[in-house]
Amino acid sequence: MSSANPARVTEVELLAIGAGFTGIGLGIKLTRQGFHDFVILERAGDVGGTWRDNTYPGVACDVPAHLYSFSFKLNPHWSKIQAPGAEIWKYLRDCVTDEGFSDKIRLNTDVTRATWDEDARRWLVETTNGTWSAKFLVTACGHLSDTRMPNIPGLDSFPGDIFHTARWNHDVSLEGKRIALIGTGASAVQVFPELQEIASSVVLFQRSAPYFFIPSGKHQAFTDAQRRLFERYPQAMRDVRAEIFWYSEGNFPPRIQVPKLLEKARKASLDYLEASISDPELRAKLTPNYEIGCKRILGPGRFYATILQENVTLEASALTRVEGSTVYGAEGNGYEVDAIIFATGFDATEPKFASIIHGIDGESLAESWVDGMKATASITTPGFPNLFITNGPNTSLGHNSAVYIIESQIDYIVDTMNYIHSQGVDTFETTPESEAAYVDSVAARAEGSVWLAGGCNNWYVDRRTHRLTVSWPDFAYQFRQENAHFNPAEYTLELSQ
Ligand code: NAP
Fold first, then answer.
1. Ligand 1 proximity of 459 Cβ (cutoff 6 Å)
2. What secondary structure does DSSP assign to 258-307, as a single string?
3. Which of 59, 268, 344, 364 has the fewest Cβ atoms within 10 angstroms?
4. How many A from CA of 459 to the centre of ligand 1?
């Protein structure tokens, strides 16, 4: 991995922004195909995306690792069914070195602007470390890369330590401290038990009570014998993967409000709450007031057991203000603390990369998406030729592995490149009609789903228009069926001269 020369414009056929799961998977596929004219720009000092950034105590993936990894790069060495974050990060770094494309990655290279040059029919990409000219541009920036911090009056004057779960400050010891933990999403429930064990006290600010899926021992460690089996017989890994995939697909129908299935899922989760928390007053505070699945259903870990610990206070309201070292909930309760940890998630509906990408008429992607993200096949949009947007509109999943969607998008890109090379295509641009048809078809599927009609605020819905723009409202296999292959009929194509 090296640095670009800032003095000149470097030409490359395909430029990708981001060396997380998508950038790395794309790198593997392109390299294996013998396509070497590509470069991946990475703003940070290492690869790995969200798994590099999230190093909070307890970080792990609640999607089983044999599915939350590339089907074309299986790993027999996972220590547990649900892998710790550090292991996933190592897996991604190993992918780059094993597949031999680390020379294609430029670290510490933050893209500041990408502009379509209509005369040159290429993307001009300015970075903190030189300028690039590329025939094809891929945004591989991820949903979970730009942290969201709520605007809390008085926070600036807080004298203690403040950090976000995705920007953990390992120089600060939280041992024996009084901690406020803000949020009850997937990150919060993983870090919460770890903080409780070392802190003198933890006050958990819960704006919305979470639903949990039922503990299944899925975080169990693999035995050496199992790992040896996976190494010797890769088919065993493929079988495990297929089993988890189809089991997970079974969790989709409740999200489109199939009443019996919804009721079953809700009841199982509330039964688990009841079995875990005997105090009716506390249980009432921990009972969600929205439909199951409207927000991500969380891996239970030790959440309820931690709530019951003596040094824990549940503040069942939002953090609304800070005065000196006192943090206040919406109901006026104040707590003096030494540190505030924000587990408040990420900006996914209005991704930051959209404001730096400028298409044919100079308009940015963010301007073109004022009514929310949209794209044909969740990957291309009119006015932005030769641009692939990954992890963009309708590409997140609540019920299955995000890596499966990423693989489908990588396959779309590779398929498009093959088409372009074989047909002598210079530029491709999706038509407004194709995009509108896709957006309508997604909207029809989203209508009545738990994300839109479940009575909660979630990070999958665009606040400006109440459109479901982040989640894919269908089975995962259906995404692949529709969106893993280039369809020339959806494009205006210009041939090379
Ligand atoms: P998140 O799901 O967006 O959760 C943010 C939390 O902060 C919510 O509980 C939110 O409350 C709360 N919040 C925001 N402002 C607040 C305030 N002023 N006072 C109190 N609470 C406030 O973020 P996340 O937990 O980082 O997870 C984001 C995504 O990362 C997940 O959905 C998942 O896709 C991924 N993730 C996955 C895993 C895994 O194991 N697979 C682990 C971690 C993260 P409301 O609910 O009321 O908005």
1. yes
2. -HHHHHHHHHHHHHHHHHH---HHHHHHTS-SS-TTSSPPBP-TTHHHHH
3. 268
4. 8
